[in-house]
């Protein structure tokens, strides 16, 4: 029996010893493997960036069926991080051939220059600058070399805007636009009330385009080492062949995209250098560094929740009052957050939601968190309203901002309905204003007066908030308001903006206000946090199959030409007060 116990104990000890030696062996192998790996060359990359498709201003939630599309803010942060990353050896860009939102093009240009500051090479390739707008070209004009496919054209000539006017159509179908605007420059109403430009509308649009044009000419001349006069000469004599544009100094080399790709790979280090799409590049995250919150709002300002484009059923993007105000409140309550950068890219929308968001900005400031506005593509009307009381406002020179004003109204369709035999009868209980929001009948004189008084109060609140927030005398605000849009360059001259720059300038301003050393790294924390996959699935499948079927039926109806015509006429014109700018279509 004794021998039996000795045998058992010996077996158990032997088993333990075996596993101990095995673990020790794995540890030794792991150490040597790590040493071996340390001598292996790390992957080196040339980042690639394709600007040929529309860009969002900043990211939304990743889609369940694909990553978030490329956007300006992610480009800026990725290039800022990559400039100091030894694994990144250069940048290859596919240029936009037709045109971009001016402020997006300008901020990408700045991001390229920031990346180049570390000495890394940037090559841009275009399959022809076929559009007449300078914006797609300006986005890449700072590249070390611009390549163009030799069989294509260089048609860059300037910038233009066109506005559609519906009044003539309304007259033919008997539709009666009933819109009030504060004031003559609040030109969104003109599309429905006029058959062409008013003097004020033409004046403001011309001034806006001239400012954009002058900024573009200056940037391109600086980047291409040309005079402004030389750049203008090229624009005014457009179109040009690829060879002629090359001779004029607008491009550097002629060749196909694969030629440019081979060239930068060779310059960056040869066949061992790989290519990585900028969307796949992960910027460094400085956990443990002082925290600055990033809150984003883009698209039309609406009541309720934001739409971030992540739904597989809709790519709609909106700036919801509930979502954005909750994000600002969460950032304000986070003890680690030292300051907030609020990225605003909107032409405005609901006055109610705009005021809700402004209240959240004020609450954050009361909690001791400085708020810096970073204006993106647009920050006009409601976009300016939410920004007016921030500690600092930073805008690109070509950001479209201002439009301090309000409009609202409806299109009355009684005569239109009568032409097709459709009739609406109503029963009203209460005061005369009860029928004011009817889409059938025009305003009565009393209704119009009451509705205008409502909007006058909103306009007074808006201008007062701007005067208080920007510390500008109210009489001066009333002169630069009137619903007029300005470029960031013009807005700075009128004290509506504190400084020019993009996201990085706004972060620098936030660090200064939070008393963080300018050379110290920061952790940029996004609010609200991205939804988990489980939360996205719950949101997606919370909708019933029946609801999806109904939605598809409604879409088919909405796509009918007759319905589209009425929807277009009435879009955004339900009787509500809107802080909404008419943003010119620019190309």
Question: What does this protein look like?
Answer:
This protein has 587 residues and is of the alpha/beta class. Among the domains are: 157 residues, 2-enoyl-CoA Hydratase, Chain A, domain 1 (Alpha-Beta Complex); 231 residues, 2-enoyl-CoA Hydratase, Chain A, domain 1. It has 21 helices and 24 strands. Strands 11, 14, 16, 17, 18, 20, 21 and 22 form an 8-stranded mixed β-sheet that branches. It has a 6-stranded parallel β-sheet with strand order 9-4-3-2-1-10, sandwiched between helices.
The biggest sheet, with number of strands, parallel, antiparallel or mixed sense and barrel status, is:
8 strands, mixed
What is the share of helical residues? Answer: 40-55%
Structural class by helix and strand composition: alpha/beta
Which descriptor suits the 3D outline? globular
What is the CATH superfamily classification of the domain at 291-408 and 439-542 and 571-579? 2-enoyl-CoA Hydratase, Chain A, domain 1
Tally of contiguous helical segments = 21
How would you state the average pLDDT, rounded?
A: 87
- Counting copies of identical and different chains, the oligomeric state is single chain
Level-2 CATH architecture of the domain at 291-408 and 439-542 and 571-579: Alpha-Beta Complex
The level-1 CATH class of the domain at 291-408 and 439-542 and 571-579: Alpha Beta
Q: Which percent band covers the strand fraction?
A: 15-25%
Keywords:
single chain; 587 residues; alpha/beta; 2-enoyl-CoA Hydratase, Chain A, domain 1; eight-stranded mixed sheet; six-stranded parallel sheet; 21 helices; 24 strands; disordered N terminus
